[in-house]
Every structure is written in C-alpha cells, then in structure tokens.
Amino acid sequence: MHDFIKPYSVALDLRTGILKSYKKKVVVKLDDLREFFYDKDAVERTLCRASNPIIYEYYDNFQPDVKGHLNFGVTTINPGKIGSEYYMTRGHYHEEQCASEIYVGLKGEGIVMMQTKEGLSAHSSICRGKVVYIPSFWAHRTINTSKEKLSFLYVYASDAGHDYETIRQKGFAKIVVEKQGLPKIIDNPIFIE
Ligand code: PA5
Ligand code: MN
C-alpha cells in the first residue's frame, strides 16, 4: 500500500514552541508576499532598503497526500509590520474545501482571520494554550500582533491542498493594522469581492 506509514512521534518544546524534528522547513520572506500585504509602497520601500526579512517559517511533518492521513507542524511568525500591517501568513482556502484544521497556540499572541467565499468574516485570538477550530470552507490567515515570535501547532488532512490563488487575487476582506499602538481590524482597502 503506497500510503502505509509506520507510527512515529516527535518532540515539541511547549515552553519555547520549537518542534524538535520535522520533514520539511519552509521559509517565507517578504518578496514571496509582495501581493499579500495591502500597502504595496511599504513593501517596495522595505525591499529597496536591500532588506528581505523572513516573515514566517513552518516546520512540517507531512504524510502521503491521500485520504486518511494528517499533516502537522509548527508555524512561527516573526514580529514586525509592513507599513501599518502586521507580519502574517499568506492565507488560503483548502482545495478540498471540506477539510478543516486545528491550531494550538504555543507562544506569542495574534489573530486567526477567517472568511468564506459567501462573504462571511470571523476571527479568533491565538495565544499559548488556545485551540482554534477552522471549519470546512473557511479561508485562514494568521497575524502576529505581538512583539515576540508567534508560534502555533497545526493539524489538517494531508489531502486538503492549499488554494493560495484566490487570496492572491482577491485578498482578505479584513486585515489587521496597528493604530495608536494597538492592533485594529479594518476593511481591506484593496479587497476584491
Ligand atoms: O495549513 C495551514 O493552515 C498552516 O499550516 C499554514 O500552511 C501555515 O501556517 C503557513 O501559512 P500559509 O500556508 O497560508 O502560507
Ligand atoms: Mn490550512
């Protein structure tokens, strides 16, 4: 059977949020996210300063891409902003739209922004000890609103797939920016319905 794998376990340091072993590490830098931050001038200004900061990384324990298995890993998002918008993940719908997901906050503080193709928006805070359930059909993006690294564990069906294209083209209806030193959820000025 091509999808048969043996049981295994990995160590997760619950104090630091560091996953001790993983099959793949993905590093996402600002130039990978050009189309995702709303303030394009701020993106270009930052990149022109010859700085291409790491925005987030994930440490993935993926399984065969077939029904029944679960992928899991840890995402860490650095603290920072592009213009007034906090560092965040790209965000996506699952290609297999029925696929849901669980996040468990490990360190730092942030917001999980979610939306449906029918125009609903919702959000949840995420921090150490908080479990966020992302149901089927909801796109999700995580935003680090704290001054330290935000890290969380994720678990989802390994055949879920990622639809980044819809978010690349339309964006999220709501974004999180800093206003007078505090995180504020506002309408995305460049959202396409
Ligand atoms: O599957 C998830 O939702 C997470 O593992 C994310 O993939 C991870 O946080 C990185 O975000 P994105 O896939 O939107 O780049
Ligand atoms: Mn997901």
Short description:
With 193 residues, this protein is mainly β. Helices cover 8% and strands 44% of the residues. The N and C termini lie far apart (44 Å).
Q: Order of strands side by side in the largest beta sheet?
A: 3-4-5-14-9-12
Biggest sheet architecture: 6 strands, antiparallel
Enumerate the spans where pLDDT stays under 50 for 5 or more consecutive residues.
none
Round the Cα radius of gyration to an integer and report it.
Answer: 17 Å
Terminal-residue CA separation: 44 Å
| Annotation field: number of helices | 2
Range of strand content: 35-45%
Ligands present = 5-phosphoarabinonic acid, manganese (II) ion
State the order of secondary-structure elements, H for helix, E for strand. EEEHEEEEEEEEEEEEHEE
Residue-averaged pLDDT: 96
- Helix fraction by DSSP (H/I, runs of at least 4): under 10%
**Overall 3D geometry?**
globular
Structural class: mainly beta
Write down how many β-strands occur, each being a DSSP E stretch of 2 or more residues. Answer: 17
